[in-house]
Amino acid sequence: MEILIRPSAAHVARLVARIVADRVSAKPDLVLGCATGRTMEAIYDELVTQHDAGRIDLGRLRTFNLDEYVGLSPDDPRSYHHYMRERLFDRVGLPPERTRLPNGVAPDLAAEAQAYERAIAEAGGIDLQLLGLGETGHIGFNEPLSALMSRTREKALTPTTRAQNAEMFGGDAGAVPSRALTMGVGTILEAREVLLVATGAAKAAILARATEGPITARISATALQLHPNCKVVVDEAAAGALEGGEYYRFAYAHEPEWAPYRADPAL
Ligand code: GLP
Fold first, then answer.
1. Of 21, 25, 176, 195, which residue is 20 to 30 A from 54 by alpha carbon distance?
2. Residue from 165, 185, 187, 207 whose mutation best tests the ligand 1 pocket (most atoms within 8 A of CB)
């Protein structure tokens, strides 16, 4: 795991978008694992900016999202299907057949979960997985005690997560669906590369536990410590509780891999 600490959320969004763009340049039909949530909005905006400027072509990507609420149809404006179309897919001309999210209104959710796993495998696996960090330490919707080898399945959401995501439901946590279909922790760990993104002081404590604390199923993001190619991109506010911050800053300042990125003050 490598932690990259940048001065602001805007720097984080630009750096993450640059990393994605570089991977897409190397492999235009990249399989991208997409996340949702407020943190991702700035990243998708930045990707769209790069796309509009002709610096990257996102039209050949294939995507798989982490999760969807159970009971929300793809047309529901509060669904992650809708979020993705609005924030990324429609803006970069990604046709529906190249994008996939779990279907939260499938008549048989267990069968849908299995079909989702098969579709990822048939696409050759996920090349690059974007992740946000929930206040419970979840990745996707893998709430506390999710098995670290879990696969795509239905999961009950914690009250904390429902409160965190209430904004899309008129601020009413009770209106947030109580269940979701989510990739498992094991599914996520099979991605060839992972980018975990966190910004803002509200994420500082859980970020420190996720990255520097002991691996535990109580905090599914701790499983990323096992991943051989996981980068964590955070702003100074989210980095506030890290014990090793000095070393992480030193590494970003000196690692040859980051030299082209360091040369750009916007990153
Ligand atoms: C939701 C998503 C998670 C995401 C989290 C972060 O819970 N299911 O995948 O990581 O939001 O949300 P935010 O970026 O709004 O803090």
1. 195
2. 165
